Amino acid sequence: MKIALIGATRGIGLQVLQQALAQGHTVHALVRNPAKISQTHENLTLFTGDARRPVDVEVCVAGCDAVICALGTSQGEEPVEVEGTRAILQAMHSQGVRRLIAVTSIGVGDSKDQVPMFFKVLMKTALRKVMAAKEEQERLVKESGLDWVIVRPGGLIDGPPTGQYRHGLDKSIIAGQVRRSDVAAFVLQQLTDDAYLRQTPAIT
Q1: How far apart are CA 147 and CA 98, in angstroms?
Q2: What is the pTM of this model?
Q3: What per-residue confidence (pLDDT) applies to 128?
Q4: Which domain holds residue 73?
Q5: What is the CATH number of the domain that holds 70?
């Protein structure tokens, strides 16, 4: 499969990049700074640009079968999720690409009660702008008319994939730690699995 990956330089996006190539996929990755991707591969094409610029995203998405949005915002940064998602959706409609897998977070939307109390406090203070951006991001995706899956991970940690995680739509799933590599593996599964089509599975 040919995948357009937005948000490839760190975190879950970098794990998606590495695992997708290992699985034999072709990857178009949109990056602001190509130097941040040290990996080279015959199936990897880097596109230099800004995820918030529709023209840059469209060049990356052209000819792809699906898009994975792994955009994230670190503390202290201005959120990019809303502008980036608008650009992605515009490019997908323009290019006729229908499959979108977007990564947000447990705590967004109807999963607010699936996080521990300390995180609820963070959501209303330090993470307020980021969580608001993710709320709007999910709204845009849900109203897009595309074939989407929104993946909501719990607390992210590093480490090799374990394959040991819980996922689903059950509101009894409470956010705990989950490896970025495991989330990436789950994200890639959604490219061809319709079990969560137009739904918002949590993973923890």
Answers
A1: 5
A2: 0.94
A3: 79
A4: 2-203
A5: 3.40.50.720
